[in-house]
Write a structure and sequence with these properties.
Distance between the termini: 55 Å
Radius of gyration: 25 Å
Shape: elongated
Strand content: 15-25%
Mean pLDDT: 75
Strand order of the largest sheet: 1-2-3-4
Oligomer: single chain
Largest sheet: 4 strands, antiparallel
Length: about 260
């Protein structure tokens, strides 16, 4: 080790300043996963965590439940084992960050989407995909923060099979084409959609959320066009559909608290 005496030179002062900056990292403020791995690259740390999980039985995968995530899971009939299986076996990708910018993971496995914190232990939210094809992702993570959220309710009762709208095979086809031409495309072509999102509730005997906070883009246009080819049936019950609308907006309010 070398020592120096006398007044520090300009170069030495610069070196001391750089060393001071390196030592000033406050690991207490870092995310727990970063503290655990001494501030290394998050992807490297995440891979290490995933490697650890590969040696565990599915039932032994850690899952820390929280009020919001537990409520959504129970409402949608998702078992904790499905979430544990998603972490162990599912496709893993970056999710939209939380309100404070904290990073999150999104796991997709057998039709279930599960969003966790960076440790893959804490439950944020979960939902089922509209189809069994995991590569079809018509929804946005429920942790997504948006400036505008429009919820559409579309009748899917048997009367929507009627062919009484000129130019369309069914009323269903007419409705979805109208939504594309009169609602979605004007926003895309005039000013763009920004971070606005759209949800859609199908009203029948039982109501279903077919689109959950999807951005206004070409993917949404394709989704609506596909829904226009659906086969309407049974009755249209308003109250269950309105309950779904309220649930969606309550989720929005919960995320803003």
């Amino acid at each position: 080790m070398c020592s120096f005496s006398g007044a520090p030179t300009l170069e030495s002062r610069r070196s001391q300043k750089l060393l001071s900056k390196k030592k000033s990292v406050n690991y207490k403020k870092l995310h727990p996963l970063l503290r655990q791995y001494g501030g290394v690259d998050l992807r490297q740390a995440a891979n290490s965590v995933r490697g650890t999980l590969s040696h565990l039985d599915t039932l032994d995968v850690s899952l820390v439940s929280h009020t919001h995530g537990r409520s959504r899971r129970e409402e949608r009939g998702i078992d904790t084992f499905e979430l544990q299986a998603a972490v162990k076996h599912g496709r893993k990708e970056r999710a939209n960050p939380g309100r404070e910018g904290d990073p999150r993971w999104r796991y997709t496995h057998k039709g279930v989407v599960y969003v966790t914190d960076w440790t893959s232990r804490h439950e944020i939210t979960s939902w089922r995909l509209n189809t069994s094809n995991e590569d079809t992702r018509p929804v946005v993570d429920e942790s997504f923060s948006c400036s505008s959220h429009t919820v559409l309710v579309v009748d899917h009762s048997g009367s929507m099979r009627k062919a009484d709208v000129p130019g369309y095979r069914t009323r269903t086809e007419a409705v979805y084409d109208c939504l594309v031409r009169e609602f979605i495309q004007p926003q895309m072509h005039l000013v763009g959609a920004g971070d606005a999102v759209v949800s859609l509730v199908e009203m029948s005997d039982e109501s279903r959320i077919l689109i959950n906070r999807q951005p206004i883009d070409e993917d949404l246009v394709q989704t609506l066009q596909n829904l226009g080819r659906g086969y309407a049936r049974s009755h249209g019950n308003y109250l269950p559909a309105l309950k779904k609308v309220v649930d969606l907006f309550e989720d929005d309010s919960a995320r803003k608290l």
